Amino acid sequence: MTTEGQGLHTHVLDTLGLAITAGAYPQGSVLRTDEVAQRFDVSRTVVREVVRVLESMHLVESRRRVGVTVRPTEEWNVYDPRVIRWRLAGADRPRQLRSLTVLRSAIEPVAAGLAAHHATPEQCAELTECALGMVATSRGHQLEGYLEHDIAFHRVVLNASGNEMFARLGDVVAEVLAGRTHHRVMFDDPDPAAVTLHVQVAEAVREGDAVRAEEITRQIAVGALAELDVLAP
Amino acid sequence: MTTEGQGLHTHVLDTLGLAITAGAYPQGSVLRTDEVAQRFDVSRTVVREVVRVLESMHLVESRRRVGVTVRPTEEWNVYDPRVIRWRLAGADRPRQLRSLTVLRSAIEPVAAGLAAHHATPEQCAELTECALGMVATSRGHQLEGYLEHDIAFHRVVLNASGNEMFARLGDVVAEVLAGRTHHRVMFDDPDPAAVTLHVQVAEAVREGDAVRAEEITRQIAVGALAELDVLAP
DNA sequence: CGGGCACTAAAAGTATGACGTTTATGTCTC
DNA sequence: GAGACATAAACGTCATACTTTTAGTGCCCG
């Protein structure tokens, strides 16, 4: 997860981004371009480009005669997918998972309601397929397969909502679901009630019942939040 | 709004970003680093840094031997504040305003509900103050003053929710509200009903009534959506 | 003693030229 | 016609020199 290895730039960016979001450099710390270049054994050119990207994420601020200073957490672009990945990989992963789950619980019910109106026949079919896949993998320690269908399901809902901002949250949801699965005790199968709810959402969307789709999705969200309380009290 | 004038980098970035998000370069278009450098009369260094930032926003993709290609809209990082600004300044501003308003309508009610639990006394006071300010400026063509208090109000709610992801949406909400105000006929005062609702939200939050805070905020959202339908049918 | 002004130097910003690396594309052969 | 090979185009990286901004210092004057 750290390097991604496709170029010096990416490596330095990932390493620095991970370190900063992990809190290795507290707010106000300064990095000097030359130092960083030396430390990673790359040219200043590369470091500058990295700094520019970190700057665009509001993780740091570069000022003349002072260096690259780390900005306070409240100013970070926490919706940047890379920032999310870094933070989920870091120390305050539980905190992060919680705030993202709350975000989901606000978005997804509304998205499901919209999907009931806007979903194409193809999307309805996909949705049903995903739900069936979830049912099929919900027993017998097939968590990975279940996760895959779960992610696909929520992605389709978000896309079918017809709202661009919702659709682009698909990656975030994927991260959250993956994070949750991989941090759960690997023995217990998914909650059967949740599986049923997903099937019902697929139904409601297919039938164009927005109110029901929203309501049931809200129940799923409540369940996710409750589960979070159990895992991270 | 275009230049911001603090450095070549910023100027080129803003110009290119604006052009790309405005659709001046359709998906798949290629930019050549050298060409851009020549066009803006800057060094390749600057252009490369700009490209890296655009790349980090998933607006473009840079590949060897082919150039900098514009990515399809669905892949933009639409939560990046700069992307939002650019798109709000561009042609499909109405579309953009709508999708952002839908986002608001999903987030803010939940945020208000959380705020009822988490708001500090200071935040409650601020909220009341904002609501009073809205009342005071709601009549007599003081739209600018009203806007200011409106923005402050929603910002406080989002911050008081205690959820980081919600809090960071303050800027987006500010943009949306500003955009709405500045595109409304300047003669008509704000809807008195909306003003009342804001006051009631402040009350509910102060009293810790989460359900009511959420419900009333949802009414505000409904109103905003309805208003949007009138302006952009 | 204090405040303001000029100077300095540190660090980022910019420009340029050279070279490395990947890869789309055309060509050549079988 | 298919596959191997060569080529060149564009980005990727590096090194270096120069410019610009600005924090910090210290001097001078009131």
UniProtKB/TrEMBL annotation, chains A, B:
UniProt xrefs under Pfam families: FCD, GntR
Has keyword RNA-binding? no
Gene3D superfamilies according to UniProt? GntR ligand-binding domain-like, Winged helix-like DNA-binding domain superfamily/Winged helix DNA-binding domain
Could you list the residue ranges that cross the membrane? none
Question: Which InterPro entries does the annotation name?
Answer: GntR_C, TF_FadR/GntR_C, Tscrpt_reg_HTH_GntR, WH-like_DNA-bd_sf, WH_DNA-bd_sf
Q: Which SUPFAM superfamilies match?
A: GntR ligand-binding domain-like, Winged helix' DNA-binding domain
What are the record keywords, sorted? DNA-binding, Transcription, Transcription regulation
State the PROSITE patterns in the record. Answer: HTH_GNTR (PS50949)
Q: Which residues form the HTH gntR-type domain?
A: 6-73
Which PANTHER family does the record cross-reference, listed alphabetically? Answer: GNTR FAMILY REGULATORY PROTEIN (PTHR43537:SF44), TRANSCRIPTIONAL REGULATOR, GNTR FAMILY (PTHR43537)
Protein name as annotated: FadR/GntR family transcriptional regulator
Q: Organism, per UniProt? A: Streptomyces maoxianensis
